[in-house]
Design brief:
The protein is an alpha+beta fold. The protein has ten helices and 19 strands. The strands form three sheets. Strands 1, 2, 8, 9, 10, 11, 17 and 18 form an eight-stranded mixed sheet that branches. Strands 6-5-13-14-15-12-16-19 form an eight-stranded mixed sheet. A three-stranded antiparallel sheet has the order 3-7-4.
Length: 391
């Protein structure tokens, strides 16, 4: 497989906090330097809050991953200083088309009105967004991003949170007023605190192939049910930056993930779809399953869970990273008011009261989409196909 994009590797830097006799205190510490964690840190800095982001890795994500960014997310990223670079680099799209077998059955325009500042969606590989966010963090005086810093212990005390951080040079401790947990769907801190996230596991597998090719396909989102080139399954196609096209194939629950993502098995699927004459190269492949689940509460004392650490949705509908940005946008201004003594602590309860129902709305629609795309019985499959035929 070719690699058109080389991920930067960031340097681990020794922090003066590691030499302190007693744990150094910061108003806000964020755990996790994915898009949502960095959004939390950038928002804190924009509010004038001194903050630290800790991440156990030292590079951005591998592969396209979260690829669709919605209008509201772009507006939030504008406030954080990254929106324009996203739009300049990304592929703007408003139109989508749905096909059943050989026929187009439906099309939609997500932004029928003109003169909006931002498009309905852009497509951009997640690693670009993360790079732009790192660049923005490096320009901030209120924000530090510490690589190779894994949180190994969390203890909430009367008026602060104390954490233990493992680095290549050894361990040290920090304290903070509030800890924002953005360490992803398999949150280590959630497990560390004995907290659970519950919901539905979808018994299906999907292949992602990022394909580099020159083509005259328009920048639209195309989705096929039971196409002739992938009988019995569904397929998704949409364009990203650098002539990279994201293609998803439904594989079924019995598929072997390791076998399916081998180039010798991926390439025949792509040739059946794109045609034998189409020239393309693979940039990245992955096989994924997914869950729709959430924590019961997103606030636990001085800990606030955001993004996938708090709620996880299926990728259909692009509600993952987009809703995570809305979490941080909801939370940080409230933390600022409370830290400044301008609002009582109970204001922070509104984060949970507002974002839990928002997560439920996303889970509901994401689950409905997934159930339609992956029918679980012959009867539901018959109803699904009848709906498409009637469309």
């Amino acid at each position: 497989m070719m690699q058109t994009h080389q991920n930067p590797v960031y340097e681990y830097i020794h922090s003066a906090d590691q030499d302190a006799v007693t744990p150094v205190h910061h108003p806000v510490i964020v755990v996790g330097a994915g898009p949502v964690g960095m959004a939390a840190g950038l928002d804190a800095a924009a509010q004038g809050i001194q903050a630290v982001i800790l991440d156990d890795n030292n590079t951005v994500s591998i592969g396209s991953r979260a690829v669709c960014y919605a209008k509201r997310a772009l507006e939030i990223l504008d406030l954080l200083g990254c929106g324009q670079r996203m739009v300049d680099k990304g592929i703007t799209w408003n139109l989508g088309k749905v096909f059943f077998q050989k026929d187009q059955v439906y099309s939609f325009n997500l932004l029928p009105e003109s003169d909006h500042h931002r498009p309905a969606f852009i497509n951009l590989q997640q690693y670009y967004l993360e790079e732009y966010m790192v660049d923005q963090i490096q320009q901030s005086e209120n924000l530090q991003l510490r690589w190779k810093s894994r949180v190994t212990a969390v203890e909430e005390k009367d008026n602060r949170v104390e954490i233990r951080v493992e680095t290549p040079e050894g361990e040290y401790s920090l304290t903070c007023d509030y800890l924002i947990v953005a360490d992803g769907a398999n949150s280590g801190i959630r497990k560390m605190m004995g907290l659970e996230s519950s919901g539905q596991v979808f018994q299906d597998r999907f292949l992602i192939a990022d394909v580099v090719m020159e083509t005259d396909f328009p920048p639209e989102r195309w989705f096929w049910f039971d196409p002739p080139f992938h009988k019995g399954g569904s397929t998704l196609l949409h364009r990203q930056a650098d002539n990279v096209w994201r293609i998803d194939f439904q594989l079924g629950w019995d598929a072997d993930p390791e076998e399916e993502k081998k180039p010798e098995n991926v390439i025949p699927r792509l040739k059946a779809m794109l045609g034998e004459e189409t020239q393309f190269e693979l940039e990245w492949t992955s096989v994924y399953t997914f869950q729709c689940r959430r924590m019961e509460q997103f606030r636990h004392g001085r800990l606030f869970f955001v993004g996938d650490a708090a709620h996880q949705v299926s990728p259909f509908g692009a509600r993952g990273a987009n809703s995570g940005f809305q979490d941080t946008d909801n939370l940080l201004w409230k933390l600022k008011l409370v830290l400044d003594g301008k609002a009582p602590d109970r204001l922070l309860d509104s984060y949970n009261a507002e974002r839990v129902p928002a997560a439920d709305e996303n889970l509901l629609n994401s689950t409905r989409s997934t159930d339609f795309i992956t029918p679980k019985s012959k009867v539901s499959h018959t109803f699904r196909d009848a709906t498409l035929l009637l469309a």
